[in-house]
Amino acid sequence: MKSYLCNPSLKIIATIMKKLLLNVLVFSLLCLNSFAQTVERANSIGLLGGVSQYNGDLGQGFYASDQATYAHIGISYSRYITSKADFSTNVTYGSLGYIESANKRFRAEQIQWNAHVRLYAFNQDTHKFLPYLHGGIGFQYLQGERTPEGTDFFVPFGAGIRYRINELFNVQLQETFMYTDHDTRDYEARSNNDSYLMHSLSLTMNFGKVKDTDNDGVPDKKDKCPNTPAGVKVDMNGCPLDRDGDGILDADDKCPDIKGTIATKGCPDQDNDGIADADDKCPEVAGTLELQGCPDRDGDGVTDAEDKCPDIKGVKELLGCIDTDGDGIIDPSDNCPTVPGSIKMSGCPDKDGDLVADQDDNCPEVAGSITNKGCPELTEADIKLFNKTIKIVYFETGKDIIRKSYNGNLDKLAALLKKNNNYRIIINGNTDNVGDTANNVTLSQKRADAVKAYLESKGVDASRMNSVGNGDSKPAEPNTTDSNKAKNRRVEFNLAK
User: Fold this and answer.
1) Domain boundary among 207, 232, 262
2) Does 49 fall in a domain?
3) What is the pLDDT of residues 186-232, one digit of tens each?
4) Which of 103, 159, 374, 482 has the maximum number of C-beta atoms within 10 A of its C-beta?
5) Do residues 40 and 210 make contact, with C-beta atoms less than 8 angstroms apart?
6) What is the 3-state secondary structure (H, E, C) of 21-81?
């Protein structure tokens, strides 16, 4: 008979429930401070199951598996009240009984309803692990073997543990003691009213509208940026994304994956000129927007890299340079920037066309050779003709005055020079060794200058003559006699080549 009333499978369920309760308790302690959002999902429904045990005139069956353990199943509903309280109700169906012997036994089918308030040790809105106490009212209907059919009123109370798996699901273990208003459901009426103990395991699901003011998919309770503009992508905290961490939101960031600047709307700008590197032709050197990020030191609209005159404000047509003389050759390339010239002569004039610039041409009016500095090459005939005029002018001791006896020959020399414009002469002044060296150099220069001045007075261009004072360094004869010294006080003439 004992095997008839006692289901071995229910013993196994009771053992498993005890182990499960212990494991959930340990795991829940580890998650004590985890976040939960009960207030946003205020309602929950669930399925429950467990075992029921009897205590009455027949004996004590609480927490005993060798007397009788009977299963029940049911559904539940709960409603959030405050952060530390909620209302719960459930309906269960199952079996209830007890067996000690063939005469001391009963078994009944049970339908039960109860409603109670649960008081939590921690805030429902901020914790996952929630121990609680509960109490309320309930009714049950019993019908079965050796059991008078009827409905009982009872007061349920007890304790439990609720663990929030996530925002939608909870698992719950609960112990409920029920003291009824009858003492005859076991067919015994000897002492106190019958009581029962229910061990329940339930799985519940939360539901309800979660408040999300900005509709970004993050509930207001978790949203650290509850007023995010529509369409803006957000992170897990509900704040606009800034993937590259440059302080510019992805929605406004033209380069959301590369750290940039505010001026360039989130794009990199390594030279900090306000122009993004992608649009900057000179990304490593600060420049202007007009020149696409390239510098222009002189402000003439030509980039420094292209400007031939980067420090002088010029014109674009001349690559940033100027052309002072207007000859079409920019000043940096013009050897004569203030005088119009030709490209062939690097901007310098060449009146006689001998490819020697006028400024370097010793004979600018007569075409000559480059090797002879623009003058015609001297021939043997030129040299002979020159030598027929005059070679030497002698001076008295310590004097630089030309003797009148030399005027005729000097006049012939002047006529020859005027007739032959390509002739250039060097006038060499000399002295004897009388006196100190410095004075002799000065005296020799005065003698050469005196001759040059005379020829110039006769119409010879001064630019064609060069006067040199040699002092006593180039004697014609040794200064050993007065006669030799007289020969050293002289001016000599040489054709310049």
Assistant:
1) 207
2) yes
3) 777 777 788 889 999 999 998 877 777 778 777 777 778 888 887 78
4) 374
5) yes
6) HHHHHHHHHHCCCCCCCCCCCCEEEEEEEEEEEEEECCEECCCCCCCCCEEEEEEEEEEEE
Query: Could you tell me the residue range of the domain that residue 152 belongs to?
Result: 2-207
Whole-angstrom distance, CA of residue 476 vs CA of residue 488:
6
pTM of the model: 0.43
Of 158, 185, 207, the domain-final residue: 207
**What is the average pLDDT across 377-406?**
86
Number of domains in the chain: 2
Q: Tell me the per-residue pLDDT of 301-354, one tens digit each, with 9 for 90 and over.
A: 888 888 888 888 888 878 888 888 888 888 888 889 888 988 888 889 988 888
- How many helices (H) and strands (E) the chain has is answered by 6, 13
CA-CA distances (angstroms) from residue 85 to 123, 175, 256, 337? 9, 17, 46, 98
C-alpha closest to that of 327 among 314, 340, 343? 340
Residue 38 pLDDT: 53
- In one-letter notation, the amino acid at residue 370 is I
Q: For the domain that residue 10 is a member of, what is the CATH number?
A: 2.40.160.20
Q: What is the CA radius of gyration of the chain?
A: 62
